[in-house]
Amino acid sequence: MSETLPPLAFLGAGSMGGAILRGVVASGIPVEGGIVATNRTAARAETLAGLEGVESIALEEVPDGNLRAAAEARVVLVGVKPAMVPDLLRDIAPQLRPDAIVISLAAGVTLATYRSLLPDSVTVLRSMPNTPSLVGKGVTGLAAVEGTSDDAIRIARTLFETVGSVVEVPEEQIDALSSISGSGPAYVYLLIEELTKAAVAKGFDEAAARTLVEGTFVGAAALLDHTGEDPAELRRQVTSPKGTTERAIAVLQDAKLDALFDEATDAAVARAKELAAGS
Question: pTM for the whole thing?
Answer without folding.
Answer: 0.91
